[in-house]
Amino acid sequence: xxxxxxxxxxxxxxxxxxxxxxxxxxxxxxxxxxxxxxxxxxxxxxxxxxxxxxxxxxxxxxxxxxxxxxxxxxxxxxxxxxxxxxxxxxxxxxxxxxxxxxxxxxxxxxxxxxxxxxxxxxxxxxxxxxxxxxxxxxxxxxxxxxxxxxxxxxxxxxxxxxxxxxxxxxxxxxxxxxxxxxxxxxxxxxxxxxxxxxxxxxxxxxxxxxxxxxxxxxxxxxxxxxxxxxxxxxxxxxxxxxxxxxxxxxxxxxxxxxxxxxxxxxxxxxxxxxxxxxxxxxxxxxxxxxxxxxxxxxxxxxxxx
Length: 305
Hints:
With 305 residues, the chain is an alpha+beta fold. It folds into 2 domains: 4-119 and 289-298, Gcn5-related N-acetyltransferase (GNAT) (Aminopeptidase, 3-Layer(aba) Sandwich); 138-258, Aminopeptidase, CATH 3.40.630. The chain is built from 9 helices and 12 strands. An 8-stranded mixed beta sheet has the order 5-12-6-11-10-9-8-7, sandwiched between helices. It starts with a strand and ends in a 12-residue tail after the last strand. The relative contact order is 0.17.
């Protein structure tokens, strides 16, 4: 083959941005990326971009990220050319070499012909994700909560309690100290008041975070809110707390002029999806997870640079 695969460099970001935006222009709720956004993402997370280069020209790229969702391959895009499938194959092979724990996933639209392409590469469909949206056109009645449960906003000095509650609920580090300040910068006028909590026995037992859906609003000139993360400690589940806080957060967003709200929900969490439908949410889009377990020799080395 006449091309080589290597890690991208800083001065290649304009070309990379152009390729990513071109490949994603028909995606659900497409929002373009820019250099600052991508640079920040690479600095703050374990995002690595590999490029395929031929005659000093980038002909394709793939991205790898290691996040709390797992190790993911995304942004696989190659210029139209007779050997496009071969370039894709080599990019995926090198991307998989970055995987540290032997399991990797990618995301495709439900019903997309790309599903079979990933199956042919050894990936299997395992679950999916819903993007759910509700209109905010009235104040909803907040359901009752058990006695001794207090609903309120997070206090400014409670970030540690917030982080501990969310991470204990998820069983992993979903948020970290400093995230609230970062959300304030990214999503004005967000503040602790936007974080809705249920308190019991002197501790935070359930959380729903409301934010402006900033990137969507900026791109589409919209006025939508976003909910997440949402969590409840295991011993306080099945008490309707997540639903109560979700309705409370919806009313909070409506009072601030939002006309709709969005969130993400696992399609395998049938009970949660059913409850969300009851309070007005509908599925806007469905993605499927394609997962692969790599052989031992496939993830102990790193992609060549």
